[in-house]
Structure formats: structure tokens, C-alpha cells
Amino acid sequence: MTVLILLAVTAAIGVTLVVAGFAPTRPRLADVLRETPRGADFVMMQADRLKLVAKPADLALVGRSRESFVAQRVGFLLGGALWIPALTTVLALIGAAPPIVLTGAASVGCALVGWQLPIMLLKSKVKHARTTFTGALAAYCRLVALGRLGDRGPVEALRYPATLGDGWAFRRIKLAIDEAVLRGRMPWAGFVELAEETGVRELKDIGHIIASAGQDGASIVDTLRAKAAALDEKQLADRKTGASVRSDRMDMPVALLGLAFIVFLAFPGLYLMLHN
Question: Three-state SS for 66?
Fold first, then answer.
């Protein structure tokens, strides 16, 4: 009983210290002048060395920081390890505590699940974000092509459609264009930088297409429309693949359900036959 209480208190202190370490604070002037790394920076260096952080492109695509992701993994780990001892403590108060070995094994298992859960959630979000971004890029290519047909210049045809969409993908495109302009570069350079940041290769292709129009005045309307059609085909193929995978996953549950139904129907006859 005392050991479980001490374990719960220690885990709670650990969670508090981890959250405090990642909480933003005002840096001291002496630390800034000396370029002394903060405690959180040291933790992130160790996390990178141990490969605890996900791919930067995946985090950038969903708008997550490295610090928040590591903090989430550590928090889920401690939470998974903590709630079993806490439940055991509650059961001990009513005299129904399980064996300490079972409690320890369950705590370790829940901790491992909590440690891997943020990675699984991130992969699901990244997959959904890439699908959404692909659809937004197809629509954006068509809007840029319409702008070029309306005699808009390459720069204006690139910037104006980014202001029409309300989704997060259009906002990311607009932000990339604005940042490139503020740095004194051509707007399509922002596509290349955004592609390297998020890992969406199609952005780099669109940037090169529009750059060709800005440099030598090439007609890019047909190229942009073809790119939009290719993005739609890719998205449709991904949806078909996902539907096929989900259908395959349903084979085993359906088979088990059918087997259980057969056993349910045959059980009365078998029971009577064995007892007679």
C-alpha cells in the first residue's frame, strides 16, 4: 500500500517537472548573451539523439512542434504507468487489490501503449492532412490556370487564388508566398521551401511550373490543368487503396462472427448429445 502511494506521488512529480521544463519562460539576459542552452533545449537534444521525435516534415504538416510532441509522448507514458497503480490504490482501500506482480505488469504494458499512442495518432493526422492538401492543391492549380487565362501576370495569378480559400491548406500556401515576398524573393520560391518543410513534393512541382512562366513567359495553363488532373487521380487511387485495405481488414471479424454464430446454433444439439 505504501509502495503504491509513493509510486503515484513520484510519477505525479515527474509529470509536473516535465511540463514545467517545456513551459515557455522569459529567458534571462545573461543566458542569452552567453548562448547557454536551456533545460528544454538539452532535453530536445537528448530526444533527437535517442530518436524520440517524429519526422520534422510530418510535424510541420500538422502544425506540431517537436517540444509538444515529446511532451505528449512522455505525458502519455507516465499517464499509462500511473493510472494502474492509482486504480490499485483505490481497490486496496476496499480490500480488493490485485497482486503486486499483476499491477506492475499491467502498469508496464499501459506505459508502452501510452508511449506508442502519440505516434499512431500523428500518422493518422498526417495521412488525413496529406489527402486534404492534395485536394486543395488541385483546386489551387485550376484557379491559377484561370487567372492566367484572364491575363493575370504570373505573380498575381499565384497570389490571388491563395486568398480565396478558407481552409488551412490555402492559408499555408498564402503564408509561404508572403514569406517569400518579404524576404525579397519571387513568390514561387515559397512553394519550394514549403515542399521541403512539409514533405509534399507536389508543391515543388507547382513552383517549378509557375517559375517557368515567370522566367520565359511560357504558357502554363495546360500544364497546370494536367497537374490538377494528376492530383485528382492520385487522390482517387489513394481512396481506392484505403477502401480495399479496410475491406480486407473486415474479413477476419466477419469470419469470426460467422464461426461464433455456427457455434451458437450447434451448441444446444452438442450439449444434449454429450449429456444423453
Answer: helix
